[in-house]
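Protocol step 4 of 5: obtain the predicted structure for the target chain.
Materials: sequence only (see below). No template structures provided, no constraints applied. The aim of this step is simply to have a reference model before the mutagenesis design in step 5. Sequence pasted as it appears in the construct record:
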Amino acid sequence: MNVEVLGFFFLAALMVSFSLLVILVRNPVHSALALVAALFVMAILFLNLDAPMVAALQILVYAGAVMVLFLFVIMLLNPASVEPSLPVWRGVVCAACALLMLALIALLMSGPDQAEALHPSSVGAGFGSPEALGETLFNDFVLPFEIASVLLLVAIIGAVALARRVSE
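Step 4 output (structure tokens):
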């Protein structure tokens, strides 16, 4: 195994552990911070795929703007007043999922075509660049991009309406 594969597995283990923390932590603010850490690890994985623009957008959009929206909703709902009890079986399910993931990794690593799976084919010269991303986004995905922007606008209007109703 080379350094790239070991680095990927280390980052994948970090990603899974931060994702489990999002689910298992009782405090919603701590859960949101674990989600921010998971999003940063995902940005590092994008950097390893030679997609620096996607990594920067991951940090700016998800770890920045969307997490601010999540924290706003957490503060608006005040979940400290309604603290549900956690089921006991949650840890067992998480441990079973972790064992299943480790078994799947072991199965993939022991396959006959391990060399092809660990060394992906090279990508084009413009992969991950701002020009390629913009061209793909605004040529091939214009309609989904506009639908997502309208949905975000409706969500912002709804959040403002809910906040205004609570304060009055």
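Step 4 remarks: Helices lie at 3-24, 28-48, 52-77, 89-109, 114-118, 130-139, 142-167. The radius of gyration is 20 Å.
Proceed to step 5.
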